[in-house]
């Protein structure tokens, strides 16, 4: 029987990694119990993967590659929970395996497609339980944390201005004086950067010895914890396009514990500074309607260049591109502001000049480049195969011992596996077509000036912003 054993852990922690042995032992017992010879090379292992779409799992893709080539008869898992936590993912993997006539076995649930036939209900029920398990654990953990908070205990990191003694927050008098100053200065109309600069000039540092920044000041001034309350369930984790993302819960879902610890500032001052509608607007707001977020960098200090909004709101009036280091600390020499609209128009003009190049040369160049990569990958696989043959000859001729042979052979197999997966991706016609289509679609958005953030992300890798206004643009399509 040609089989594969799939094992997975979701983190790189020792206690998780050690579970690999447990998964392998359980699968090995099933293999040998059913009269088959155990093959360690049939084990496929994905490690340290959490919140990742199954399509991106290296070992899983290798198994599916063999399935499509008709090189496997059976795939064995310790449990559906190891196969996939998401119901949709589990059903998709099952459909691929059974669609190619491959037997699917999950040992803990006692599911075996060979005996179940077309009975999908049993698998679906187990898959639903597997999907629900993390939510149940999360609810249990949340309940335990809530109980701790009700007892006046503090969970999480220790905020500036407090110490944790006997699991409870106790005011650190020296730090609390700085916290009070920050709130007072902010209420007097000083911005986050001015407060940070004042603290730094006085020689004050954060608890970790760092300079104060706009972000660190804002974290304190916008935190209701300093009024003595503790807030839980402020954020939640959701899955978007197969990836986990943290989003803010609606305020009505927050769990607020009043008088949880001693307050550093009064409720009245907090409400004056942070009205119900949100933190009071200051003179400057960052990343206001910034279509370039994440791709513009300062040539001097290497930090991000951000869109800084100032004054009365209008479409692009009084929005500037400015180095984030200068904005936070006032230290970068690259601080001459450039109007956002001028910057935007310049980038649009440069990109539109590139469109003719796209239509005439890019598609052919992408295909040529892919063929080069395919040839290189095939050559590497052939070289690795030759190395394995030579290594075997060395072992057979007693030039190296068994342990050395096994270790070197494993490394070569890992390299070959990685190259085979890379080759599979390169040969995927959908990937080739998608690469050119994405860029062409981005240029269409550019012409219509719609969803420019998406267009810029597809077309530009990086923009380096110099003090004299010079720009270096690195495009995604320069092959």
Question: What's the Cα radius of gyration?
Answer: 29 Å
Count of distinct structural domains:
4
Mean pLDDT, rounded to whole units? 79
How does the helix and strand content classify structurally? alpha/beta
Content of β-strand: 15-25%
User: What is the rounded distance between the termini?
Assistant: 45 Å
Secondary structure: helix percent: 40-55%
Strand order of the largest sheet: 2-1-3-4-5
Low-confidence stretches: 12-18, 276-287, 311-316
The count of DSSP E runs of length 2 or more, i.e. the number of strands, is 18
Sum up the overall morphology in one term: extended
GO molecular function: DNA binding; DNA strand exchange activity
Organism: Bacillus thuringiensis
Protein name: Recombinase family protein
InterPro entries: DNA_bind_recomb_sf, DNA_bind_recombinase_dom, Resolv_N, Resolvase-like_N_sf, SSR_resolvase, Zn_ribbon_recom_dom
Give a structural overview:
The protein is extended, with a radius of gyration of 29 Å. It folds into 4 domains: 3-132, Rossmann fold, CATH 3.40.50; 162-281, Alpha-Beta Complex (Hect, E3 ligase catalytic domain fold), CATH 3.90.1750; 285-338, no CATH class; 342-475. It contains 16 helices and 18 strands. By secondary structure, the protein is of the alpha/beta class. Helix 13 (340-396) packs antiparallel against helix 15. This is Recombinase family protein. Keywords: Coiled coil. One of its GO terms (molecular function) is DNA strand exchange activity.
């Amino acid at each position: 029987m040609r089989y594969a054993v799939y094992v997975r852990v979701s983190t790189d922690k020792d206690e998780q990694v050690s579970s690999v042995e447990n998964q392998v032992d359980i699968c090995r017992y099933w293999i040998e119990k059913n009269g088959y010879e155990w093959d360690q090379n049939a084990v496929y292992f994905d490690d340290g993967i959490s919140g990742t779409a199954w399509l991106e799992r290296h070992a899983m893709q290798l198994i599916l590659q063999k399935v499509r080539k008709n090189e496997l008869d059976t795939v064995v898992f310790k449990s559906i929970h190891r196969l996939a936590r998401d119901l949709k993912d589990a059903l998709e993997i099952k459909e691929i395996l059974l669609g190619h006539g491959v037997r699917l076995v999950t040992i803990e649930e006692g599911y075996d497609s060979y005996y179940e036939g077309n009975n999908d209900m049993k698998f679906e029920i187990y898959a639903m339980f597997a999907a629900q398990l993390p939510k149940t654990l999360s609810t249990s953990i949340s309940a335990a944390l809530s109980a701790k908070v009700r007892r006046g205990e503090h969970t999480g990191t220790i905020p500036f201005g407090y110490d944790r003694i006997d699991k409870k927050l106790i005011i650190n008098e020296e730090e609390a004086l700085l916290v009070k100053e920050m709130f007072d200065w902010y209420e007097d109309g000083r911005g986050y950067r001015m407060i940070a600069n004042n603290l730094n000039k006085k020689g004050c540092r954060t608890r970790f010895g760092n300079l104060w920044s706009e972000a660190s000041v804002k974290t304190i001034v916008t935190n209701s914890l300093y009024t003595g309350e503790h807030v839980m369930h402020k954020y939640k984790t959701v899955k978007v396009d197969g990836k986990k993302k943290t989003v803010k819960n609606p305020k009505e879902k927050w769990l607020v514990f009043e008088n949880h610890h001693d307050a550093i500032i009064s409720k009245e001052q907090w409400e004056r500074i942070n009205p119900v509608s949100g933190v009071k607007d200051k003179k400057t707001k960052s990343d206001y309607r910034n279509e370039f977020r994440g791709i513009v960098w300062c040539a001097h200090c290497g930090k991000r260049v951000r869109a800084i909004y100032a004054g009365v709101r209008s479409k692009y009036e009084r929005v500037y591109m400015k180095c984030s280091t200068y904005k936070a600390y006032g230290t970068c020499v690259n601080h001459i502001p450039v109007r956002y609209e001028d910057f935007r128009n310049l980038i649009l003009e440069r990109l539109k000049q590139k469109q003719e190049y796209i239509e005439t040369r890019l598609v052919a160049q992408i295909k040529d480049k892919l063929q080069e990569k395919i040839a290189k990958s095939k050559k590497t696989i052939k070289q690795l195969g030759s190395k394995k043959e030579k290594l075997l000859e060395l072992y057979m001729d007693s030039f190296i011992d068994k342990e050395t042979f096994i270790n070197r052979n494993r490394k070569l197999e890992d390299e070959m596996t990685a190259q085979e997966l890379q080759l599979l991706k390169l040969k995927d016609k959908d990937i080739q077509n998608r690469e050119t289509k994405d860029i062409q679609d981005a240029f269409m958005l550019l012409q219509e000036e719609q969803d420019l953030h998406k267009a810029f992300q597809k077309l530009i890798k990086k923009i380096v912003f110099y003090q004299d206004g010079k720009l270096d643009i690195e495009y995604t399509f320069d092959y």
